């Protein structure tokens, strides 16, 4: 049984709301780095949180990635958000792919703001443990989220929920391992600072608390420690700055929840069993 009965035909939003809108308003003036973003997009959100956390100056530019305007294609070959336009080059250069952008911003911050989402470079093992978490998020958690949300038949939804919970479990195991094997203070799991894995996973965990709850009747895994982690994440001031109000996500994800044809490149990849774009 799908949790919400009928597709009401809602479309994705084209402007941030709530806290995210306030942040957009503070980042309207041209700077060296323009973030091409879309208000509902989790891949954008992870880059956006990174910019905020690292204290790197940027301006936010909202685009509709499904319409693929020429200015987006110029900075992102597949027409996907997020993308960065680097205005200090002449002519300007660009970068796409959220994970690559995040690494770029980390490198940039290492010689400017000196903030980071990773333990210090003097502790390569601790850094690798966090990267293992991030890798798990990208290869397992993110696809499991979409498979679950796009599943239409009851059986597939049950399997989707199981797989999603299992991928969360895998992340927690990696968190626990890092807690045991390193003394790093980076990462919300150990009540440290916001870290790379939090930023990588955050947008989907957040959407699990609203979109998956609404469309799939999902309940987050029990466990005091896990629930406390999710609370620290979604209420983290830097993360919250990039969050719109719940209605924006519910409306924007109805397309996925009913698996409407041609919803997105991600949705098509999930439907055809291919790797995500
Ligand atoms: N691998 C890309 C994925 C980005 C992505 O799929 N973005 C979506 C919005 S959430 C998009 O631009 N979709 C446009 C489309 O499907 O044509 C990344 O990590 O940056």
From TrEMBL:
Residues 31-113 form the GST N-terminal domain. Residues 123-265 form the GST C-terminal domain. It comes from the Eukaryota. This is Glutathione S-transferase. The lineage of its organism: Eukaryota, Fungi, Dikarya, Basidiomycota, Agaricomycotina.
